[in-house]
């Protein structure tokens, strides 16, 4: 009986250690993965965000709208960002959102997803991939749902696009493990006015739970109705850099490829039923 009481805690601690090791394997052996994503291809990305990331040798994912004038006007700068290791992600050609939903007064008839067909949505997204490849020469990237909208008339328009992307980022909050991560709708935390402490606390939670944390930013220090203070953003970056031994910070395409490999390996080792 005494032997049982002595051995049981040892077995439990060993099991927890193995589980933690399996979770961190997905994150390059580190405690967690953190991905910094920036939507809408705005001037602030090139003027403030990329210089801030480059100064600390951190890399992020920038979701470009194919029709954005900032893409056309500053194409060379986007190309340089990609050459430095940042991901240029796909945020569709026209950033269509479902205008029938509450709070969508900003949606115009031209970019109302509810008036699209699935074929049109797929075609515009693939056209944006062609544009992005012309900029960065890459064929592997991720997609971000404009406004988080995923369906047209009840049909998920991403289904025909699964082979076009490594993964797609949604807008729902969550800190998934590699096994839990839904590569068709990756969870993220949208930042709009929150403090540096709030963002750093999220990173600490991810470290403790060995999970994936994706940040969603728009404006940084201005430039968008959804915004985060530039100093708060800078404090987050400095925290990530100071703890880079324990935190894997990478573009979403790289993290998603790692997650996909882990999930495929796990599925292959699962016993047949």
Automatic annotation (TrEMBL):
Keywords: Signal
Pfam family of the protein (one): Polysacc_deac_1
Signal peptide range: 1-20
Domain NodB homology: 32-250
InterPro entries linked to this entry: Glyco_hydro/deAcase_b/a-brl, NODB_dom, Polysacch_Deacetylase
GO molecular function, a single term: hydrolase activity, acting on carbon-nitrogen (but not peptide) bonds
Gene Ontology biological process terms in this record: carbohydrate metabolic process
Name listed for the protein in its UniProt record: Chitooligosaccharide deacetylase
Annotated organism of origin: Hymenobacter edaphi
């Amino acid at each position: 009986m005494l032997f049982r009481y002595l051995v049981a805690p040892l077995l439990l601690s060993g099991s927890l250690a193995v589980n933690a090791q399996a979770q961190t394997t997905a994150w390059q052996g580190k405690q967690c993965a953190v991905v910094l994503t920036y939507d809408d291809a705005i001037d602030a990305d090139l003027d403030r965000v990329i210089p801030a990331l480059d100064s600390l040798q951190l890399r992020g994912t920038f979701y470009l709208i194919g029709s954005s004038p900032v893409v056309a006007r500053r194409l060379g700068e986007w190309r340089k960002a990609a050459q430095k290791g940042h991901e240029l992600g796909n945020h569709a050609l026209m950033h269509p959102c479902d205008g029938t939903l509450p709070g969508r007064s900003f949606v115009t008839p031209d970019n109302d997803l509810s008036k699209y067909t699935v074929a049109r949505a797929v075609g515009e997204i693939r056209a944006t991939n062609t544009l992005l490849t012309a900029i960065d020469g890459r064929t592997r990237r991720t997609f971000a749902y404009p406004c988080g909208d995923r369906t047209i008339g009840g049909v998920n328009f991403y289904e025909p696009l699964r082979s076009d992307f490594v993964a797609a980022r949604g807008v729902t909050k969550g800190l998934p493990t590699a096994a839990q991560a839904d590569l068709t709708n990756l969870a993220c935390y949208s930042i709009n006015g929150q403090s540096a402490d709030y963002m750093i606390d999220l990173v600490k939670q991810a470290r403790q739970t060995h999970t994936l944390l994706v940040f969603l930013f728009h404006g940084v220090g201005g430039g968008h109705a959804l915004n985060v203070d530039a100093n708060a953003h800078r404090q987050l970056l400095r925290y990530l850099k100071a703890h880079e031994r324990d935190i894997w910070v990478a573009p979403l395409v790289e993290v998603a490829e790692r997650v996909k490999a882990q999930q495929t390996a796990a599925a292959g080792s699962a016993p047949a039923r």
